[in-house]
Amino acid sequence: MLARQYHITNQQYCPRDENLCRRWFVRGRGKGRLVFVWKATTKTDKNEKQNENEKKKSSGRKKERVDRLVSRLGYCDGRSRVKTEFLNRNRLSLSSNSTIEIKSSSEKVDPSDVLIDGRHLESNELDGVLILFHKPKNCVCSKEKEEGNNVYDELMKATLMDEDDAVNGKERIERWLNRVPEINTVGRLDKDTTGVLLFTDDGKLLHAYTSKKVEKVYEVTCDREIPSSSISLFASGTMKLSGEPKACLPAKLEIHKTDAAKATITLSEGKFHQVKKMFFEGLGCMVIELHRSSFAGFVLKDGFEPGMCELLDITKAREVFNL
């Protein structure tokens, strides 16, 4: 006895649809007959589904629970507080119709459509953040409170570059520090080192920056004049530092013409205290000031003072590493 194979399809019934029949007959390996059951669909249902697909295509984002979304972006501390702080106070709505409020914390929404207090979510913060910070002196790149003042404390007090509304700038920085997953520094700078420091909540991007040979530029001031012979020594790639199994990669050193105690060094790696060790162990020069002026091409533009920060384009940063 031949078995029948049933296939339910959303396609409208068409007795001439031979390709559909042939395809499923081959899948059935020629055994038995194929019986197609066409689901009845109304014109309204088809239009709604088409509109939903177009909307999803335009935003390019998956829908997610509203409580997860709000807490993930740092608007409140924990998903349980979304209901009390936002839903119960009627602070959440959809941009398709701002008069319709979101009432359920489990409702799945497109992040691009959500409004908080009548304002859209920051579009450049929905898929992760990459922050450029001008690290000041006397703060460590650690979250441990016992180590003293840290860069996260300084970021909390930071001024957002090119932000006219100081209150809004502070609120945005607080959200960055409250995000899930949390932001972390991309590498570290010593306590007394100033300059470019990045923060991100994207673990893959952070790993790419720290594991790949990205370019770092430092401005160095020593306690004495730097010998010109150090240029070839740094470029040789033969300098080995204490506690390191391998020699340093070749580095470019430019001694300032107006002041031989100052130099610019370009590296593509980041060993522990590398710059200070290279000058002290290799040249006998003590580094008294160290400033990182560039990291992976990111620089501090004019007016970017210590303690200031700026949100970068994380999408472009990911494209560099094909993430």
Question: What's the gist of this structure?
Answer:
This protein is an alpha+beta fold and 323 residues long. The chain contains ten helices and 18 strands.
Description:
It is a single chain. This protein is of the alpha+beta class and 323 residues long. It has 4 domains: 4-40, no CATH class; 61-121, RNA-binding S4 domain (Structural Genomics Hypothetical 15.5 Kd Protein In mrcA-pckA Intergenic Region, Chain A); 130-208 and 301-320, Alpha-Beta Plaits; 215-295, Alpha-Beta Plaits. The chain is 29% helix and 24% strand. The protein is built from 10 helices and 18 strands. It has helices spanning 18-27, 43-59, 66-72, 80-87, 151-156, 166-177, 203-211, 230-236, 274-283, 314-320, and strands spanning 4-9, 33-38, 64-65, 92-94, 97-101, 108-109, 114-116, 119-120, 130-135, 159-160, 184-185, 194-200, 216-222, 252-255, 262-267, 287-295, 298-299, 308-311. A hairpin with an 8-residue loop joins strand 11 (184-185) and strand 12 (194-200). Helix 3 (66-72) crosses helix 4 (80-87). It starts with a strand and ends with a helix.
Q: Can you give the helix content as a percent range?
A: 25-40%
Please identify the top-level CATH class of the largest domain.
Alpha Beta
Domain count: the total is: 4
Based on the coordinates given, report the CATH architecture of the largest domain.
2-Layer Sandwich
User: Given the helix and strand composition, which structural class is it?
Assistant: alpha+beta
Percentage of residues in strands: 15-25%
Number of helices: 10
| Rg, alpha carbons | 29 Å
CATH superfamily of the largest domain: Pseudouridine synthase I, catalytic domain, N-terminal subdomain
Could you give the distance between the termini? 55 Å
Return residue spans where pLDDT drops below 50 for at least 5 consecutive residues.
12-32, 38-44
Helix-strand topology string: EHEHEHHEEEEEEHEHEEHEHEEHEEEH
- Shape designation: elongated
Do you know the CATH topology of the largest domain?
A: Alpha-Beta Plaits
Number of E-state strands? 18
What's the mean pLDDT score?
84
Characterize the main sheet. 10 strands, mixed
